[in-house]
Design a protein that fits this description.
This protein has helices at 31-43, 61-75, 106-111, 156-167, 197-205, and strands at 15-20, 48-51, 80-82, 119-122, 125-130, 174-179, 211-214, 221-227, 230-236, 251-257, 261-270, 275-286. With 296 residues, the protein is α/β, with parallel strands linked by helices. The chain has a single domain (15-286), classed as Metallo-dependent phosphatases (Purple Acid Phosphatase, chain A, domain 2). The chain starts with 14 loop residues before the first strand and ends in a 10-residue tail after the last strand.
């Protein structure tokens, strides 16, 4: 079992968030990776846990049942926020706007959580979730067939709603936005996760948000994103399944914040000890008090 990191700094104990993604219950599932993540989660206290989507592979009942059992184990450790990913959306029930869209997320709502865009508040941290997995609805459609079913989207109404929820967070809270699709372009895939990515980036940077947690691209990332409208730290978690890009190990992220700084560290799976170990990526930035104004 890996020892979880500790942080020091003024202003009380650090906020610590475990961020994992893309469990993919089904054919790509790797039990050893999930058990190691649970070991890390149970090794020391966490303020919250984030699971940023794709808990299933084909949105099947048996996959969601398995995912629910895993999520319940994380929920027993710390407050846990989960959002759906594109693999959790049964898009074939409403292809290209035809059919019954309510069925697209019906199984996710039944087995995982009724709310696709939850808010979780815990001491020192507020987490706001958004559903970027629209299937083949116009909200996520582009002109490129390769994007269909895979690309995500965030509407102006969703972004405004997230802005308002973050504004309402308690003073001094670490404010985290959770979206399945990667908001920065993948280095290995060279692909954006969201339709209209620059519009989304500008809107997110204008929010009073400290960290944005994403998954989807199966590449661990930790970096500062700066736009004309503001800045935030991105925490992109790799997959816990066997679908890693470039034959790299599975990875998850550890987020820590003191009164003065925010750090995000990727922890990679070490098969020799069946545990996650720190590395290969970490970023630490000064903490800037979020102060974006409320929307009219």
């Amino acid at each position: 079992m890996a020892d979880a990191p500790s942080a020091t700094g003024g202003g009380g104990p650090p906020v610590r968030v475990l961020h994992l993604s893309d469990i993919h219950c089904g054919r790509p599932f790797v039990a050893a990776h999930v058990e190691a993540a649970l070991d890390l989660a149970g090794a020391s206290p966490w303020s919250a846990i984030v699971v940023s989507g794709d808990v299933s592979q084909r949105a099947r009942d048996v996959e969601f049942l398995a995912a629910r059992d895993i999520l319940d184990r994380f929920r027993a450790i710390a407050p846990t926020l989960v959002v759906p990913g594109n693999h959790d959306a049964a898009w074939w029930h409403a292809p290209f706007g035809f059919g019954e869209y309510a069925r697209v997320h019906a199984k996710y709502r039944h087995y995982i959580a009724p709310d696709l865009e939850p808010t979780v508040e815990a001491p020192g941290v507020t987490l706001v979730g958004l559903n970027s997995a629209w299937g083949t609805r116009p909200e996520a459609l582009t002109w490129y067939p390769r994007d269909w079913r895979v690309k995500g989207g965030l509407t102006a109404a969703q972004l405004e709603g997230a802005h308002r929820r973050l504004v309402a967070a308690a003073a001094g809270d670490l404010r985290i936005l959770v979206v399945h699709h990667n908001v920065v372009r993948g280095r290995l895939s060279s692909r954006w996760g969201l339709k209209a990515p620059h519009r989304a980036l500008d809107a997110i940077a204008a929010m009073p948000v400290d960290v944005v947690c994403t998954g989807h691209d199966h590449e661990e990332r930790a970096e500062l994103v700066e736009r004309a409208t503001g800045r935030f730290v991105v925490s992109a978690a790799n997959t816990l399944s066997d679908r890693m890009r470039g034959h790299r190990p599975s990875a998850l992220n550890v987020i820590e914040a003191t009164a003065d700084s925010i750090s995000v560290t990727a922890w990679s799976y070490d098969a020799a000890v069946a545990a996650f170990r720190p590395g290969p990526i970490t970023v630490t930035v000064p903490r800037v008090t979020a102060g974006a104004p409320a929307l009219p």
